[in-house]
Every structure is written in structure tokens, then in C-alpha cells.
Amino acid sequence: MTEIIRLPQMLRDAEVRAGSFDEAANTIDVIWTTGATVRRFSWMDGEFDEELIVSGNAIRLDRLNSGAPFLDTHGQWSLNDVIGSVVRGTARLEGGKGVARVQLSAAADAVDRVARIKEGTVSNISVGYRIHAVERKEMDGKVPLHRVVDWEPWEISAVPIPADPGAQVRGAGGAKPETFDCRVMRTLADMNEVRRIRLGMQQRMAGLGR
């Protein structure tokens, strides 16, 4: 069974590879995903765990490899927010991680922010991505697991504080964020498990009412 839900762009912690700054080329190397499972919250579904699948079949690398932007704190409203870009063709999967090389800007309006990255006082990185499809698995006695089997990193950002794993990109001034279609796939076994869990809850509630 498949259903369509609407999700905004999501955020995950990433990291600069230690000692990767190349002064001659003005580049840094980043690890933009490790596929770790994180706890998230949805007003519709409550808490759930999100696992990013790190494989060539699951990740759409076209945007990164076309020179995706390196942003100041996920800024999307001004060209001044762009402080670099992913070096074309460098985004790849390596040892279960997503890695890429970032070309830092030499523009005058980015000098101060880029300087902090070079000296290491700004070392927190975050990746913004869109989810196209998840496999939802019900877990008896635990929160559901969303296995993200089709996703697309859009941008990488330098951030002052690591991204909250449950965070998502929000609209300016509290505006409602743009959302995108996401396929939620459930197996017959999972649907039967949901029915079993719900039946058990109903039976327990009926027992309490006696």
C-alpha cells in the first residue's frame, strides 16, 4: 500500500573533514551524511525515527554534482547567502558516508564568513534535503521507523550551531514552509502489525473500563 504525504525540506547535521582546508584551491571537504537514525516529530504522526538509506539507489546526487550551493545558515533569500558551492562531480558515497568538496567563495561580501570556516571557528555543517519516498515500519511498543529509500540533498550550509536532527527548513517570518510530495510505502505485514497493535490497545482499554 502506498500513500502520498506532504513534507518540507529537512535538515541533518553534517561535518567538515578535519584538516581538509586546501589554501591553494580554497576548498574544504565535507561529510554530508552518515545515514544515522534520528528521532523526529510530526504534528500528524507524532514521534518517529528517520533512517536515511545511504546507497546509490536511494540518493539522488544530481543536484550536488551540478554545483549545489554552500549557504550561510540555509539562507535562501539573497545571493549574499551563497558563500560557496559544491565542486561539480565531487559528491559521492564512500564507506557508508556521503562526501563532497566545497569551493569557498572569494567574493568581498563573503570574506568574513569564509575566514571563520578557514580558521576553524565555524566548523558546524548542515545539509538540506528533500524526501521522495519512505518505507514506514510499525514497531511494537516503539515509535515507527521511516526508512528513507529515495531522497535528494539540495544544499549544504555552514551553521553556528549543529542542526537539530528534528528540525526542518522554516519559511521566513514564520511563514508556512514549502512542502513536497513523499510516497509512504507500507508492506502487508506492516499493515497487519498495525491492526494487531490497535486491536491490542482496544482490548486493553476495554479491560480497563470494566
Task: Describe the secondary-structure layout.
Elements: E1 2-8, E2 10-16, E3 27-33, E4 37-42, E5 46-52, H1 62-65, E6 69-72, E7 82-86, E8 92-94, E9 97-104, H2 111-119, E10 124-137, E11 145-159, E12 179-185, H3 188-208
Parallel strand pairs: 5-11, 6-11, 10-12
Antiparallel strand pairs: 1-12, 2-3, 2-10, 3-9, 4-5, 6-7, 7-9, 8-9, 10-11
Describe, in plain words, how this protein is organized in 3D.
- With 210 residues, this protein is of the alpha+beta class.
- 16% of the residues lie in helices and 43% in strands.
- The protein has helices spanning 62-65, 111-119, 188-208, and strands spanning 2-8, 10-16, 27-33, 37-42, 46-52, 69-72, 82-86, 92-94, 97-104, 124-137, 145-159, 179-185.
- The protein has a 7-stranded mixed β-barrel.
- A hairpin with a 3-residue loop joins strand 4 and strand 5.
- It is elongated.
- It starts with a strand and ends with a helix.
- The mean pLDDT is 85.
